[in-house]
Amino acid sequence: MDTKRLEKLCNSFGVSSAEHMIGRTLQKDYEPLCDEIKCDRLGSVFAFKRSKNETAQTLMIASALDEVGLMVSEVKDNGTLAFIQLESVSPSSLLHQRVRILTRENTYVDGVITTGKKALEDKCEIKSADDLVIECGLKYDEMKELLHPGDLVAYGNNFNENNGIIMSKALFPRVFNEVTLELMEKIKDKEFDFHIAAGCIGQSVIGYRGTKTATYVIKPDAAIALTGFDTAQKKVHPGDGVVLGYYDRQMLPSQVFLKDFAKEVETKAYFGLTGNDGSFIHKTLKGTPAISVGIAVDNMGSANEICRAEDVDALVNALAAYLETINSKKLAEFGFGD
Q1: Which of 133, 165, 199, 209 is most buried as measured by Cβ atoms within 10 A of its Cβ?
Q2: Is the pTM here over 0.90, yes or no?
Q3: What one-character DSSP code corresponds to residue 122?
């Protein structure tokens, strides 16, 4: 795994609706690895490797592009910022976290999430983002000049790797952005009888909004959604290698596709409730046979997500090996033909 590149990706600002900056970074890295770059109007970016087969099917390998974030809702006259959450994150996990705010001039202001005027000794119960504020160390006049309602907020940079254990903000989805890059590097000089579109979906973690638009651009015949599997339910753990989703509330994966992948790749089965990009890819266009594949991630949605480098390497190698076992005929069979 390219740890330095992953650190650069994790430290990039990419909150939903402002993921174009990380998208440009990925596009630059994808360009020498593919035949064409395909994008939608929400910021999704895909490396498209074209087959010489005139009747080639298309396999989509997709991860999210945007990261969990907040939005400034009010600049208070006491010099603090009120905010809302853009995604479902436990408010109690936000307390004392460093954050980075993107201004309208494309500069950054750093801050810390606190309880504001509420004394820490009160041990007040944090029930929602309304119980928290962001403090930046600025005077009110300075803050009114720099910051405005609607400004986007990401966790502060904190990437760390030690003995193969990686901790960072935005590890999901950045580790899967890295997986798509490493996969394209592995298959750059190989020929397949099907097209491969590997990339990242804009506005994904905020309700999978870009999932449909990206699917309309790629028009896949089958899809692999790369995702982090939350360890909170103790069903998977870092070190489990490749994890394969068998069920969630929003998608029953294509059984033909799932069984074929499980036959070729050693995986850990995951039965959960939370959906992923595959939940929407599979019901777009005429229906797209899809499976969800990924690795275990600790502390999902927090400022300190954790995964293991060995799992990342296992996922890249598994995907590269699996591509060698399929062809356009099999991809068509996953969707029961036309």
Answers
A1: 199
A2: yes
A3: G
Residue where a domain terminates, one of 97, 126, 155: 155
Cβ atoms of 310 and 237 within 8 Å: the answer is no
pLDDT, tens only, 97-133: 999 999 999 999 999 999 876 545 455 677 778 889 9
Claim to verify: residue 33 and residue 182 sit in the same structural domain: yes
**273 and 185 housed in the same domain:** yes
More confident residue, 71 or 92: 71
**331/320 Cα distance (integer angstroms):** 16
pLDDT tens digits, residue range 195-226?
999 999 999 988 888 899 999 999 999 999 99
Of 38, 29, 31, 36, residue with least CA distance to 50 = 36
Number of separate domains in the chain: 2
Q: How many Å is the maximal CA-CA distance in the chain?
A: 69
Using CA atoms, how far apart are residues 29 and 146, in angstroms rounded to an integer? 33
* CA 301 – CA 221 distance, rounded (Å): 31
Rg (the chain; Cα; Å): 21
- Residue 269: CA atoms inside 13 Å, Cβ hemisphere, count? 8
Measured CA to CA in angstroms, residue 275 lies from 61, 85, 184, 218, 272 at distances of 16, 19, 26, 21, 8
* Pairing verdict, β 222-230 and 290-297: parallel
Residue 160 belongs to a domain: no
DSSP classification of residue 101: E
